[in-house]
Amino acid sequence: MPVSTSPQLSVVVPVFNERDNVAPLVHEITAALRGRAADDGGNFEIVYIDDRSRDDTLAVLTALKAEVPELRVVHHESQSGQSTAIRTGVKAARGTWVATLDGDGQNDPADIPKLIAERARAASDIKLFAGWRVNRQDSGSKRWASKWANAIRARMLRDDTPDTGCGIKLFERAAFLDLPYFDHMHRYLPALMQRAGWKTVSVPVNHRARSTGVSKYNNLNRALVGIRDLRGVAWLITRSKITRTREI
């Protein structure tokens, strides 16, 4: 099956030590998008970014390329973290719009067409459609930590987003690449898009329990890093300036 040289949609998936989740997720993505009309996600590519996994994730991805022509694989030569992996994938993407998924399989690729449908009926100044996990399938401690983190973030940033930590998102590639880059920026995309003058919406999506592997983060690490990042994003917002222009 040939892949267009100019896909309209790029599905970007960062992974680190997810060898057992790679193949099932890739096949779910193709099942969700193949056969659709081009403007409904049917003209797509899948861009996996291996963040220098220590297991054989890269080998599994390389083997999958032979049976999934939409699949592209980018490998980090040094481990760089999720935000950098996402940005690497977006820079490598050829689509005008990008959908992101976490590599652990907890996001449901069947929700990508739902986000695309939301985009089709939305105003042109909405550049981010963020997934909202209304029924999270995580441990009680992780749900509790996320609840408090979201409450503090919403109070400080006023980004009107109930769930910024959800991995499934759909956004315009050019708008994303115009945002300031820093580690962990993927957790603040709604606030950063709004800072740039764009609008964002949250869309309820499915969420699944992790079927294999282990989480790469713990609540304490998230909290310590999050406090510093939150202060930084708040500072960026206070220093932002949007200038409307028109060509004469």
TrEMBL record:
It holds the Pfam family Glycos_transf_2. One of its GO terms (molecular function) is glycosyltransferase activity. It comes from Lysobacter stagni. Its EC number is 2.4.-.-. Signal peptide: none annotated. It is an enzyme of class 2 (transferase). Residues 10-176 form the Glycosyltransferase 2-like domain. This is Glycosyltransferase family 2 protein. SUPFAM superfamilies: Nucleotide-diphospho-sugar transferases (SSF53448).
